[in-house]
Design brief:
It contains 13 helices and nine strands. With 318 residues, the chain is mainly α. A three-stranded antiparallel β-sheet has the order 2-4-3. Strands 1-9 form a two-stranded antiparallel sheet. The termini are far apart.
Length: 318
């Protein structure tokens, strides 16, 4: 996903610093005809899977962890690594390649071993999905770009189709719909304007859990503290427990509520006051602990550690 793509690449010429990029600097509509075909007999078969840099969406993680029959936490640990999507530490996850190499862990000689549940980025290739939203807009817009890497011979195949037809063929519609809430959150954070310092660590931790570690988020949702705070109808709670798709949709609503104050959830009467009281109690406990140990803390602050021989004469008898 490339946000603000039109601003970044508009009007680039031969002197552009992006001229070596495989992403052509043109926004395309869905009715644009492209030339492309990938098949097992092509000479570059598996080349794109041999050197990966794939950012996973929350729905990618959901599909793959369910296909493998493992928890979201196990999948994240074994198949991904975390990274920061922006300077404020917005959490993302990428596919972890094979140990000591750059190939996808799911690549086999026949192709992709999880093909039916392959990530959205793999489905789209060689098309790039662009999610765009200007600062004065409230709805994100979708456009596309074409990726032409030198190793890919699919662009030389005698096959022509529109981007919309290619998207339908690759089954991306469901992936796009299930990931739209996440893309909106990402765009909203990126277009929020400059802030003062990084967001609190707990904000990024909530973002990571709700988006990617879905089984852990489910445990959070059914916890006593969560249900003492939010009004969740019994029928909806049953869906959240049983249906990963519903839970992921709820996760995006929860993040809009806690990160952007959009009131996507209904809080119970007195929940805010109780939360503020707990925060006040915790703050007071920290203050009292500091006061009780103030002398020790101040002494440790200004007391240098024992010197070592050679440290500007410290630790010597001279």
């Amino acid at each position: 996903m490339l946000d603000q793509y039109d601003q970044k690449f508009k009007g680039l010429g031969k002197d552009s610093p992006f001229q070596d990029s495989p992403v052509l600097p043109n926004m395309l509509e869905g009715d644009k005809t492209i030339q492309f075909r990938c098949h097992r007999d092509i000479k570059c078969w598996n080349a794109c899977c041999s050197n990966i840099d794939i950012t996973l969406t929350p729905y990618d993680v959901l599909r793959l962890k369910n296909r493998l029959g493992i928890s979201s936490g196990e999948f994240l640990k074994q198949y991904t690594f975390p990274f920061e999507m922006d300077k404020d530490g917005m959490p993302g996850v990428k596919f972890n390649p094979v140990e000591g190499g750059s190939a996808c862990q799911f690549m086999v000689p026949e192709g992709c071993s999880v093909y039916e549940d392959r990530p959205n980025a793999c489905r789209y290739y060689p098309v790039a999905l662009l999610s765009l939203r200007n600062s004065d807009e409230f709805v994100d817009r979708t456009a596309y770009a074409l990726v032409q890497e030198k190793h890919c011979l699919g662009h030389q195949e005698n096959r022509f189709l529109t981007i919309d037809d290619y998207r339908a063929e690759q089954g991306v519609a469901d992936y796009d719909e299930k990931s739209r809430g996440w893309r909106q959150l990402v765009l909203k954070r990126k277009s929020a304007g400059p802030g003062i310092g990084r967001p609190p660590a707990v904000s990024n931790q909530l973002f990571f859990m709700a988006c990617y570690d879905l089984d852990r988020f489910r445990a959070f949702v059914i916890s006593e503290s969560f249900n003492n705070t939010y009004e969740i109808p019994v029928e909806q709670m049953a869906e959240l427990v049983a249906d990963d798709d519903k839970l992921l949709e709820f996760a995006f609503a929860f993040l809009r509520h806690v990160l952007f104050n959009e009131k996507s959830l209904v809080e119970k009467d007195g929940a805010y006051e109780a939360r503020m009281e707990r925060l006040k109690t915790k703050t007071e406990a920290i203050r009292q602990e500091y006061l009780a140990n103030r002398d020790k803390i101040e002494d440790e602050k200004y007391c240098a550690p024992p010197g070592q021989p050679g440290d500007c004469g410290c630790g010597t008898n001279d």
